[in-house]
């Protein structure tokens, strides 16, 4: 069996109008701040800004591991993006969840251990809908590549997606990963581990669905 190459193209699609407004929480909200010393505000001369959507799920962890192994280069800047729901009136600026700082710190540490030569930053944004919030954050950060973990969907859902079309199905609640792939202004990849027995990953782009990439 021939192993498929894993080098990704370095280009951005045409920009689109943002669909949502997101904002970062204040520094006193309990989230890990960016390190003041040695903080990477910009990638290297030949580097890119790679944004990876994270959450406590195993799906997101698989996406991070794939991106670090197959997409991120030494001179790139990695931004771990976490989206939270807007706080209700009277509850403060952001959700007060003590698990969030520990989770983000652990994810950042994992990236630094696996790729110590790459600078890693964390960003937390608010958004009523996760898909539009991610797309807007990637546009605002001028990311060159957006990586989103994708859950395995049922056969019925996949048939509906094929019948309705990617953009229509995503708008109707087809999934966050599908929405980001179809609407991001930069190159966006949805990543899902195929299976423990078979191995490899399934990669979805705007033009290619479930492309099997051996790893």
From TrEMBL:
* Segment forming the signal sequence: none
Region: Disordered; residue ranges are: 24-44
Quote the InterPro entries the UniProt record gives.
Answer: Rossmann-like_a/b/a_fold, UspA
Q: Which residues form the UspA domain?
A: 48-192
Q: Which Pfam families match?
A: Usp
Identification of the protein by name: UspA domain-containing protein
Query: What organism, scientifically named, is this protein from?
Result: Salvia divinorum (Maria pastora)
């Amino acid at each position: 069996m021939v192993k498929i190459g894993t080098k990704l193209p370095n280009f951005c699609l045409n920009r689109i109008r943002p669909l949502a407004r997101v904002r970062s929480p204040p520094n006193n909200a309990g989230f890990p701040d960016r390190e003041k010393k040695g903080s990477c505000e910009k990638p290297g001369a030949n580097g890119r800004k790679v944004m990876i959507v994270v959450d406590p799920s195993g799906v997101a962890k698989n996406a991070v591991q794939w991106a670090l192994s197959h997409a991120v280069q030494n001179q790139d800047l990695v931004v771990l993006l976490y989206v939270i729901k807007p706080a209700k009136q009277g509850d403060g600026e952001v959700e007060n969840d003590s698990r969030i700082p520990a989770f983000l710190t652990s994810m950042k540490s994992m990236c630094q251990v696996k790729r110590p030569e790459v600078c890693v930053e964390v960003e937390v944004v608010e958004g009523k809908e996760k898909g539009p919030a991610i797309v807007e954050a990637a546009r605002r950060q001028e990311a060159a590549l957006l990586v989103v973990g994708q859950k395995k969907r049922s056969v019925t859902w996949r048939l509906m997606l094929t019948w309705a079309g990617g953009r229509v199905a995503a708008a109707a609640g087809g999934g966050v990963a599908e929405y980001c792939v179809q609407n991001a202004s930069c190159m966006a990849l949805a990543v899902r581990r195929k299976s423990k027995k078979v191995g490899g990953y399934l990669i979805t782009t705007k033009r290619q669905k479930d492309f099997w990439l051996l790893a």
